[in-house]
Structures are given as C-alpha cells and as structure tokens.
Design a protein that fits this description.
The protein is α+β, with helices and mostly antiparallel strands. Helix content is about 40%, strand content about 10%.
Length: about 800
C-alpha cells in the first residue's frame, strides 16, 4: 500500500501540494542563460542547443549528438570525458619583516600577562551572535549521535589521522551525525610549527590590528588554530568565560534539487563545515561585525572521513583570490592571513597532476570522424571538446598544511536555510487550517535562523522594521528582496570579470550574495560559454550558466522561507503559498536577466539601461568563441580602442581593428586571439566594430543627459553600477573591464615557487591585484606588470592538468 494513503486526508493533500510546488520550481529553474548571444552550435544539427538571447529562459546545455561524439572521441583517445596590499610597508619590506618575525615560533606561551597584548582589542570586542542567538544540539540528540559515531569513522573506507581518541571525541573532532542545532562547538587542531606567510594589511587594519600585532607570536598562534594558548593570558586577567569556536551543519542542493546522498548516513545529518571552524565574531573599530573562520583547521563532525586540512597550494589560491575579488569591486569574503606549517610540521597527502597529465590532442577540421558535419559544426565540436576534456589527478603528493583565515560580516549560507527548512517542513500540522506544526523544535530553529540572518545580513531592511512586532513574514520577504538583488549582482559580476566559481551549490551561496569557497574556481583565459576549471562542474556550473545556478540557489532560499511566510495564512494557505512563490520567482527571473544585460551594456560602453548593447553582444559572442579569443585581453583592448578614439565621429574603423588585434611580433602575447585571425574573421570583426561605434553614437545623440566631455584617466570609480548616466563610454568600459586578474598560470607559478621556499611572487600577485583596473605599465612601483601579466595565457597553460583543469 502506498504509504501516503495511510495518512489522514488533510496530510495527504499537503504532501500532494508540496509535490506540485516542487514541480513548479523545477519548471521555473529552466532559466535564461546569463548572457545574450546565439546558439553554441546549430540547433538544427542537434549538436548543442544554447539560449543566449536576452529573453531566453534555459540553461546552456549540450544535446545528445555533440555529447555522444565527445564521449566516443575521448574514449578513442583514452581521455576522460568531461590599492591596499601594502599600505603600511612596501611589499618587499613587508615580506622581509614577516619572514624575520615569524620564522621560528616557540611552542606554548607564558601565563604572564603582557601589557598591550596583541589580541587585547580583539578579545575585548568579541561578540559571538551565532552562539548567543542560535541553538546547539539537545542532550538527547547528542547521545543518539554518539551511538552512530563508531560506524561513521570508517565512512567510505577513509580514516582521519586526527579522528581517534577520547580527546578528539570531547573536542568534536570525530565524524558523527548532528540531528538538530545550528552549531557544534569544535576546537581547531593547531598547526605544528606555524609561520605567517602573508596577510592583508587592509583587512588587518579593518579589524583593528596594527602591523606590530600581526607580526607577533600570539597572532600567529591564534590564526593557526592554537586559540586557547593565544588567549590564555587575557583570560587569566579578565576571568572571561571560555572562548568558544564552532562549526555549522547545512544541506546540499544542486541546481535546485535537494540531496542527501552526499551525507555518510544518507539522511543529510552529516553535511556541514568539514574543515572550516569559526573562531569568533568581532566588532571592529568602525562598529561593524565580522566573523573570522579558519579554513583547514582540522576535522569536525562534518569532515566525512577527511583530515580537515588545507594545503599551502590551495591556501595561496584562496588567499589571493579573496583579496583580488574584493579589489575588483565584487562582494566577497576576505582573507586576513595565511599561516603554513613549517618543515617538520603537518603535511597532508593530496592527489594532483604530474607534468605528463595534459588535455589530449583535439581533432582537426579534416578529421574523418567529422566528415559528416559542416565546417561550422566541426569548429563547434572541437570547441566543445576543448572544455569537456578534463582528466583526474594521476599522482599523490605530500604538501605542507596551511590555514587561511577568511573574514566576512556573515557566513550564513542558503544551505543553512535548506537544512532547517527541510526539518521544519517535516512537521505537518494536524489542523486543516494551518500548513505546519509551529510548536516543534525544528520550526523554532528555522525561525531563529531567519531572525539571525536578518540581523546579520539585512539589519536595516529585514530586522529592525519587523523584530519588535515579531513579523516573521515581513522579515522573510525582506530577506528575499535583498538576496535577489545581491545574488543576481554577484553572478553578473563574475561574468563581467571572467570568473567561474566552479561549484556553486546552495551551500556555497551566501544569503548576502558574497563570493566564498575559493576551491575549484578559475579566471577564464580562452573564452567558452561552458568554461570551468573543476572536473566536476558539468555544464550547469559553466561560465555563462552561473546566473542560472544563482537563480536556482535563490529558489531554494525562497522555498525555505515560504513556510514562515504562509504560516499564518489560514485555511487558504495553499493558494497563498502558490501566489507568493510565483510572484517572487517571476520577479527574480526578471532581475537576474536584467543584471546580466546591464553587465554587457557597460562592458561595451553603453549606459546600463541602453538596450542596444545587448544586441551587439548577441552578435559578438559567436565570433569570440569561434576565433579563440582571450576574455580579459579582448575587453581591455576594446577599452583601449575607446580611449584612443574617444570621438564617436571617428570612422577609422580599420585602425581600431588593428589596435584591438594587437601585435605579437611587437609584444609577445599582446593579441587577444590564440591563433591568427582569418580574413573572414577580420572582416566580421571590422563590421562589428563599425556597428558598435555607430550604435554608441546613436545612443549618445538620443540621450537626455549629455555625455561628459572630460575624463580623468588617473582614477577609477569604485563600482561600475554607481557611474553617473553622463559618464563617457571609456569611463564605463575601464571600470567594467579589468586589465589584471588572477589567471591560473600565475597562481601555479606562485605556489610552485612558494613550495620551494620562494614566496616573492605571492606578494607580487597581491600587489598586482590591488589595482586591477589601473594600467600598471612601467611606473616605478609597478615592477613592469604590464609586460609580465597583461598577456594571453601560454599555450601549455591551456592543456596542462592542474592549470587548464583540476579536481
């Protein structure tokens, strides 16, 4: 008998209603692709069907014909088918100071209280709202969890070296299910022989640290996980209660589909912060709240059998990318410090790529296997293979462990809401007139989380107006309004700068719309709409599908808050739930589409609201894809065209094309094209430049706000969205099209040198990304950055494992 038939009739109706809601959600997530263009491949040939129109509503995807060919080809070739960086000291002086001051840290510390202790201001301003406002697991559930612990430690045959013994159990360093509560108190596992590699002076200053504080032993102790030792002198003096550190549970949803199979228990009760531990919230001197989180601080109950560590390679990538994203003007978590375990300390084994592991050779246009396709189709198949061929690691390497301290006003994830909404919605009410049982502990935890997110992320709009009235519906709707704007802005900005997050699940999406979890990310070299570094990204997390992924995550947030919105709707709650959800998601689709359209208008020099910019992108996209175009160089050189030819009356279109194309014979790597343009494509780009310039002139002549006649080229506005409507096309383009981003070949070289003891390039890249929109073309302080870094990726970087792709 169907188990649903055993339920009372009103509960059967509710379950049927929720299934319908799920169906509505899946239909609505067939969203637009985040850009505008034409099909990747001719849809009539059944190769790749992509909707790149501004009014389209589907995700970029590969249809069966192209996928089958790619799969068979890979099998036949044995390939797998798939300004603030140095505000206190100059960079080199700062690096020297760090190495001298932290190269030999002593173990332990004296209980003698030091005057002006380096952590004194931090300690006095700690205010852990996550602990104070939210709940931890009940004693009953704690005991229930311990009964499952012994079997969990052998999950998938893996055992953590730090997951044994009574001390680890007491400190919550052993894997176990967490059945309720927003956090688990977890002690970090300190790094042995810690040394500070680098820090962000601007982030340190924001938190109230002086340079002397940063170079001190207690600072290194605290941010390498030895929290108790670092704070012990302060605790002895103030007799303050024990400082708590914590990890949090959340759920996994991918493109709007909820999963539990990722959990070792198959229930979703074992997923969460596997190697990230929050070590406190602090009120800064500017009266702003920041949470500090150690990534790589050892195992937690959510480690799923792993060691809970990060290595120097991944930590350098995370540290630099966090600060680069901040300087690009994109919402992000920040990086405060990077601490490594010195030789003789902690190491971890990680699978990685040997020099032999490269993307296999692609078929040529005259490959007999492509004979049945047209020339254009053959080009598209080869282009598709160039992003699908990704290999798994082939060697195991030992790497030093490291910890990056990431900082954010909040780390509230959509995955948090996903988990607690699932638990709350499991409680169906016995009364036909109400949708849920609002008396359960699960309901209380969902409501607590909502108020906490409102307090942390949307205080002025979602907390202050509603908390005294206990208006959960009003607060939830305000959170959704704010998240809709911030997440749509975020994914549009990623496209603007050529960034692919790689693993944009709901648990990697913050409610406040900040970039986080810099793992399998990558900045794009050669343009392709499905670009992603991670071997597991699939098409759904491909470059131009990121707005669709962001929208899918927003849908999960909306579904998770709907119970709070309709809880008091009465007997018509089902209709009200349908109405509210349709209204919110319809608005969200429009907002997400408009944000990506605004990005391309601004990149092309148009006012954000000038619709002709979207049409020009539709025509440009296939040309860029088919001509193997470098994303960053193309847009910046197009910006140079506008700088050199500011008058829209100019008709020197051939000279403009020459400037756009660059000249590899004069400056190697300066052309944005990875292979010479054919005469056919030269003609296409010339025609497009002509249309672009004429469209800009027409837009200007029809504008009610005359364009500024002067432009200060020495400064760059802080954000392209805040430019005045009378800004010049060049001003719009310069702030929309960065000159420098963290290309993977740069990061590979930096962490490769660092592994051999030379950390100079890590500091240099931090300095480079401090001014991504500036020219950096040979001044005294620029270290010849333009020659070194404003160029295409080396050819080998487009095929090498660990650079072109990674696991």
């Amino acid at each position: 008998m169907n188990c649903c038939c055993q339920l009372p009739q009103h509960q059967q109706q509710r379950r049927h209603h929720h299934r319908n809601l799920s169906t509505l959600t899946k239909k609505s997530t067939k969203l637009f692709v985040a850009a505008a263009a034409s099909s990747i491949l001719l849809s009539s040939s059944g190769l790749v069907t992509t909707a790149f129109s501004s009014n389209a509503s589907r995700v970029v995807s590969t249809s069966s014909t192209a996928h089958c060919f790619a799969l068979s080809y890979c099998q036949s070739t044995k390939q797998t088918p798939f300004t603030t960086a140095a505000t206190i000291f100059p960079r080199k002086q700062l690096q020297s100071s760090l190495q001298m001051s932290t190269s030999s840290q002593t173990e332990g510390t004296s209980n003698k209280v030091e005057k002006n202790h380096p952590l004194q201001n931090l300690y006095q301003n700690l205010d852990p709202s996550w602990i104070n406002q939210l709940s931890t697991e009940t004693p009953t559930n704690y005991e229930k969890s311990l009964q499952r612990q012994s079997s969990a430690t052998s999950y998938r045959g893996r055992t953590s070296s730090s997951s044994s013994g009574s001390e680890d159990a007491a400190d919550n360093r052993k894997m176990r299910p967490i059945y309720n509560g927003h956090y688990v108190v977890v002690k970090p596992t300190p790094l042995k022989k810690p040394r500070l590699v680098i820090h962000s002076p601007s982030m340190a200053a924001t938190l109230g640290f002086t340079e002397e504080d940063v170079l001190s032993e207690p600072f290194v102790q605290f941010f390498s996980g030895d929290v108790s030792t670092a704070l012990n002198p302060l605790g002895t003096t103030t007799k303050k209660e024990e400082h708590l550190t914590w990890a949090t549970p959340y759920a996994l949803s991918i493109m709007g589909t909820r999963y539990t199979s990722n959990c070792p228990y198959g229930t979703g009760d074992g997923y969460g912060d596997g190697r990230a531990i929050s070590i406190g919230e602090v009120i800064s001197p500017q009266k702003e709240r920041y949470e500090m989180q150690l990534k790589g601080a050892g195992p937690t109950p959510f480690c799923r059998g792993a060691d809970g560590r990060a290595v120097l390679r991944s930590s350098i990538r995370e540290f630099l990318a966090s600060e680069a994203m901040h300087e690009l003007g994109i919402r992000t978590t920040r990086a405060l410090s990077l601490v490594v375990s010195e030789k003789g300390g902690d190491t971890s084994n990680r699978p990685w790529y040997s020099d032999r592991n490269k993307r296999g050779p692609l078929p040529t246009l005259d490959d007999p296997r492509l004979a049945s396709y047209s020339l254009e189709q053959r080009k598209q198949i080869i282009s598709q293979l160039s992003v699908q061929q990704k290999n798994d690691p082939d060697v195991m390497i030992s790497e030093p462990c490291a910890i990056t301290t990431r900082v954010s006003p909040s780390f509230v994830r959509i995955g948090h809401f996903d988990l607690f909404a699932r638990r709350a919605m499991a409680g169906l009410a016995d009364d036909d007139d109400v949708p849920y049982d609002t008396t359960t502990d699960a309901w209380k935890e969902l409501e607590e989380l909502m108020w906490h997110a409102a307090f942390r992320d949307y205080k002025e709009s979602a907390y202050d107006p509603f908390v005294e009235k206990k208006d959960a519906k009003g607060a939830s709707l305000a959170i959704l309004k704010g998240a809709m704007v911030n997440i749509s802005n975020l994914v549009a900005d990623w496209v603007r700068v050529g960034f692919a997050q790689g693993n944009f699940n709901a648990d990697n999406c913050l409610v406040a719309g900040r970039t986080m979890d810099y793992g399998p990310f990558g900045f794009m070299d050669e343009y392709h709409p499905l670009f992603a570094k991670w071997t597991g990204s699939g098409e759904h997390f491909g470059f131009l599908n990121q707005p669709s992924a962001g929208y899918a995550n927003f849908v999960v947030l909306a579904e998770s808050l709907l119970p709070l919105i309709v809880a008091d709707a009465g007997e018509d709650w089902m209709k009200e739930e349908q109405r509210v959800k349709k209204e919110i998601l319809t608005e969200a689709q429009e907002v997400f589409q408009e944000e990506i359209d605004r990005v391309f208008r601004s990149k092309l020099g148009f006012d954000q609201h000038e619709e002709s910019g979207s049409d020009l992108w539709s025509e440009l996209e296939p040309m860029m894809r088919e001509s193997r175009t470098d994303w960053i160089l193309f847009w910046r050189r197009l910006t140079m065209v506008m700088k050199e030819y500011p008058s829209l009356d100019s008709t020197a279109y051939g000279d403009m094309l020459d400037l756009l194309m660059g000249n590899d014979e004069v400056v190697k790597g300066s052309s944005p094209f990875y292979e010479p343009l054919s005469e056919n494509y030269r003609s296409k780009f010339l025609d497009w430049i002509t249309k672009w310039r004429k469209a800009l002139k027409e837009a200007e002549s029809s504008s009610d706000d005359p364009m500024s006649t002067s432009s200060d080229d020495t400064t760059v506005p802080s954000n392209w969205r805040t430019l005045p409507s009378n800004a010049t096309p060049y001003e719009r383009m310069k702030i929309s099209n960065p000159k420098y981003v963290l290309r993977e070949w740069m990061l590979v070289e930096a962490y490769g040198r660092a592994s051999k003891g030379d950390e100079n390039m890590v500091f240099e890249l931090l300095d480079l990304v401090s001014d991504p929109y500036g020219e950096r073309d040979g001044g005294d302080d620029d270290d010849n950055y333009e020659e070194k870094y404003f160029k295409r990726a080396p050819d080998e970087a487009l095929t090498a494992g660990g650079t072109a792709f990674m696991s």
